[in-house]
Amino acid sequence: MKTLPLVLTAAFTFGAMNLSAAEPMHKVLLSAKDNLRVDTWEQSGHAGGAKGSAWSVRKISLHGGKQEGVDLVIIDNGKLKITVVPTRGMGILSVTSGDVRLGWDSPVKEVVNPSYINLQSRGGLGWLDGFNEWLVRCGLESNGHPGTDKFINNVGEEATMELTLHGKIANIPASEVEVSIDPAPPYRIRLRGTVHERMFYGPKLELQTEISTEPGSTSFRIEDVITNHGAQEQEFELLYHTNYGHPLLEEGSTFLAAASRVTPFNAHAARDIAQYTTYTGPTPGFGEEVYCLHPLADRDGRTTIGLENKARDRAVSLTFPVKDLPYVTMWKNTTSMAEGYVTGLEPGTNFPANRRLERAHGRVPKLAAGESHHAAIDFQIYTNAEETQRLRERISALQGDVKPVLDEKPEAND
Amino acid sequence: MKTLPLVLTAAFTFGAMNLSAAEPMHKVLLSAKDNLRVDTWEQSGHAGGAKGSAWSVRKISLHGGKQEGVDLVIIDNGKLKITVVPTRGMGILSVTSGDVRLGWDSPVKEVVNPSYINLQSRGGLGWLDGFNEWLVRCGLESNGHPGTDKFINNVGEEATMELTLHGKIANIPASEVEVSIDPAPPYRIRLRGTVHERMFYGPKLELQTEISTEPGSTSFRIEDVITNHGAQEQEFELLYHTNYGHPLLEEGSTFLAAASRVTPFNAHAARDIAQYTTYTGPTPGFGEEVYCLHPLADRDGRTTIGLENKARDRAVSLTFPVKDLPYVTMWKNTTSMAEGYVTGLEPGTNFPANRRLERAHGRVPKLAAGESHHAAIDFQIYTNAEETQRLRERISALQGDVKPVLDEKPEAND
Amino acid sequence: MKTLPLVLTAAFTFGAMNLSAAEPMHKVLLSAKDNLRVDTWEQSGHAGGAKGSAWSVRKISLHGGKQEGVDLVIIDNGKLKITVVPTRGMGILSVTSGDVRLGWDSPVKEVVNPSYINLQSRGGLGWLDGFNEWLVRCGLESNGHPGTDKFINNVGEEATMELTLHGKIANIPASEVEVSIDPAPPYRIRLRGTVHERMFYGPKLELQTEISTEPGSTSFRIEDVITNHGAQEQEFELLYHTNYGHPLLEEGSTFLAAASRVTPFNAHAARDIAQYTTYTGPTPGFGEEVYCLHPLADRDGRTTIGLENKARDRAVSLTFPVKDLPYVTMWKNTTSMAEGYVTGLEPGTNFPANRRLERAHGRVPKLAAGESHHAAIDFQIYTNAEETQRLRERISALQGDVKPVLDEKPEAND
User: Fold this and answer.
1) Does ipTM surpass 0.90 in this model?
2) Between B143 and which of A34, B42, B237, B384 could a Cys-Cys bridge form, CB atoms 3.0 to 4.6 Å apart?
3) Using one digit for the tens of pLDDT, what is the confidence trace for B345-403?
């Protein structure tokens, strides 16, 4: 019996090109405007000619279970492999470089199509049915814990609604996705996506994201612009929930940050605040501990946080301006592997309490009509002891002589 | 082993035909019964031979964002272009004729697949996540405002449930869709669709709709039959939410209707009832105003309502028997363009209060087992001053000497 | 006019093979792991050579209405046709053998894609929007009536949630599906599927099912393994909701079971308990009656329940170990045909009250980390009077001299 190859839905292009100024690469992969979806596609080349760094970009579609119809884009710059999920709000499933993986082993194994997600299920915790990305944006109208908050309803009156955990943006499929490579050195590879969180009588927020990297580099950048397309002032919340599991997270790994103040999120976390930067191995029955940090910045207004392994020869860092993302949440969930051994490093416009509480503490920013909020994070992967040490030293220098206040109690919420 | 190529979901036909009695056109585009979905298709011709009016019918599928997998059918009769959305309950996205557009600019830009809609979100306002059609049916088990009402549950007992805004029908994909052209003059083009709102231990309501027009005409007709396929008496509500934005709606546009009585929907609308038929331009911060009309009919039992532009040389009218659709809701939402500058002309079996209130006012009809409710609306587009004047005169004649009662207060709801 | 055939989603294989040890059949139809979905496929042959029993297996995809994108697998062993729905948790739509049909005529006609289901709608009864299978599993985290129960939330605290009718498993698409035929006599045909009900901070339950039959046989077997992949003890509930309509169910049909005790589910059912094993014809307005049985087993620990027609020449039986499925629910819903004339024979780990009540009565089992629960049911179809009589006699023998306690009142729930 012979089996024939299955032509799936698309023009499947095995392309190989040596990129030069004469051959810029630009490909639209998804477009609601142009009514276009590329099912499967691939292109590869060498930046700047045959001797340049090899790169490839692949677009695939997922099948089976709850991942039916999900789009993935995989960027390989020769050193880093970045897997982006347009169908889940341009979240990033994982980034790998050699033996370093940004990502974790969630009990959720499939990349879940939002059409199978009900955010309201389980008392507003339906978001957890799809949670397995390395980087998932929480927002945009709200993020944080579920629970009652006020809003303006369809007749212009203040009403109450039940917010759902971490908002909608991670479960909205991207409307526009395109990839390009700059025609001139350093031939930066750029994946751009647009996700709309909009409705009638409600928010009209747009996320424009660019995920970019240079061929041969171990760093990459996420640059987002959130725009209020409504005619009225609009609250928003944005939190980058970046999550790390084994092997970068292990017994003896260290969380690195410079902070003026660290507040436990609840009484449970308060108990362990003295050791909040160090991790245990997988601990069955471990209950999550969350710490809220006020990061310290350098003279350019930028801070760096990171995670290093026990041997101090592997690490990741996140660098960003604190004016755009003034709060850092650190989430420790060092439970058993089966339940999801993971820690979260989460820069945001707010801490992840219910929006009602964040508003009371002055941590819910607003955008005027037409106004945008910009946020960019530079990520760096470290694969040896020297680089890792320099990271540690940089963050120590940020901390300087400042003694961080470690609060004994969670923030008061009346 | 033999391998045959399978044409699964699409025959992609570039067809051009001159329609005659010898070549009737009939095409099934979607059928749950026959397990068939045409992905993309087009046919065109001239009605009654080469000198007849040009027509075309196109079936396309949408891609990108939340519109992934949505079916559209576009009927062009040579004068009118009607865009129907089978995936959204056979709603109509827009109708255009020259520079007249029936439709509006909703902040919701994509034609949203119901698989991404949660009607229960935002306290029962999830319907607003997909609201951008020119014509959207509200119903069938209920329509109107969200809120608590009673129903009979799975054990035959009266229970309460939270109704969601405007019901389910606009977010149910059509089960059967076919298009045909009559073989004899005037070669009427007919698009028929069936949408089922049915469940176990609940309503078994069927919508059969026919959207039809003659080649070269500026009028078209929607003819619906709602049938109760259950064995028990069944309440239903049906409201045609037809929506108009710029340019037909502008400062100085006028709503045209003959009514015995007009009641404001709430205190806010009551304030402005003296000017309820005239419109302002886009007004940031404008809160919606809703008016409930009891239309006057001619000797054949038909009424006509309409909307004309400021220059009185462009207009649309809706003509229908008042026994089928005895109530007209007029929705004024002349807010800024970004929020959705729009007015609704909405014939219905009821006003859009929660079904609990409509029932109390005797405006929730019932269908016996096997019984059907028929509703048809004739739409006419006017593209010059003379035609528009005749429309105005016709509606004036309907009003005759009757002075409409303009209520100062909303209806009492205890 | 040119017509181009468009090969859209599949390679369709008409295969014919005479199965022998040299040609074992094995085909993966769906795999999230291997990112694979076969749209359409068919294979047929004769078991053990040209003189053996004819068999075929078909995989098709459904289109139109709410069944867009649903996968079906149809196994024909020469005597039985079994139609399985991978997209709906490996439920079974129907089994037919000659003029005997395991199945019923639900008002829900389409095989509904879970992407169109909202389990929380209608006060937690959204499951009823898709209910039309012959066999639908209820579970796995919970089944039974909707209503409030406790759970452990994302911060490790006991919280309350609204359970939805019959749980999630029937609305989760299978992740892995494969079909095979044993290479040696009796050439058993096996369809295996895996469905995951898993989330972060919640259950990590896996259903592995095998539906199998021998060529030429009128019996088949469902063998399920439920595994807790979490690191903590996990409650679960599993109920096989098998449903039978006309013609097997008719006035004078009899429910066959050996029981030590029968308890009415509510006061309504209590009234008719003396006649609980006999059925009326379609009775408009009939309210459902539910009876809870404690089945009697043979010396091997197995019980048999069944349904026979009025003429006692057609029947079905279910045989299973009572240690795996210790409770049997009998659901009588002999309403009009239009509303769904049906009876349910439902072996389970529990009765279908809300989990809160089942827990209080000690009927919610738990699985330790990594532990599995096994459940298998053998089904037999009977097509003549002698076989049917033997079934009746077998169940009589199980009952023996034991007088079943028929409770006059429902179970007390305080």
Assistant:
1) yes
2) B237
3) 999 999 999 999 999 999 999 999 999 999 999 999 999 999 999 999 999 999 999 99
Beta strands in B141-274 (DSSP E): 147-152, 158-163, 176-181, 189-198, 204-213, 219-228, 234-235, 237-244, 254-256, 259-264
pTM of the model: 0.95
Measured between beta carbons, which residues in chain C are less than 8 angstroms from residue A113? 115
Mean pLDDT calculated for residue range C68-78: 98
| Surface of B (160-199) touching C: CB under 8 A | 160-162, 164, 172-176, 195-196, 198-199
Contact B19, B25 (CB under 8 A): yes
Per DSSP, the three-state class of B359 is: helix
Interface membership of C11 toward A (CB under 8 Å) = yes
Taking the CA atoms of C278, C281, C283 and C288 in sequence, report the sign of the dihedral they define: positive
What is the C-alpha separation between B146 and C6, in angstroms, rounded? 45
H helical segments located in A96-162: 121-124
Residue A231 to chain C, least CA–CA distance (Å): 32
pLDDT of residue B158: 86
Nearest CA distance, C169 vs chain B (angstrom): 18
B151 band by pLDDT with thresholds 50, 70 and 90: confident
Instruction: State whether B14 and C5 contact (CB < 8 Å).
Output: no
Strands C234-235 and C405-406: unpaired
B34-69 pLDDT, tens digit each: 999 999 999 999 988 888 899 999 999 999 999 999
Give the model's confidence band at A414: pLDDT under 50 very low, under 70 low, under 90 confident, else very high: low
Q: Which residues contact C397 (CB under 8 A, 6 or more apart)?
A: none
Alpha-carbon distance A111 to A93, whole Å?
Answer: 8
CB atoms within 10 A of CB B133: 25
Q: Residue C78: enclosing H or E segment and its boundaries?
A: none
Q: Is C9 on the interface with A (CB under 8 A)?
A: yes
Each residue of C288-300: pLDDT tens digit?
Answer: 999 999 999 999 9
* Chain A residue whose CA is closest to B105: A200
Residue whose C-alpha is closest to residue A406's, from A269, A256, A286: A269
What is the three-state SS of C20-60? CCCCCEEEEEEECCCCEECCCEEEEEECCCCCCCEEEEEEE
Rounded to whole angstroms, the Cα distance separating B188 from B166 reads 32
- Please give the backbone phi and psi of residue C248, each rounded to the nearest 5 degrees, phi first: -60, -40
- Peptide bond before residue A140 is cis, with ω within 30 degrees of 0: yes
Torsion of CA C76, C77, C82, C84, to 10 degrees: -70
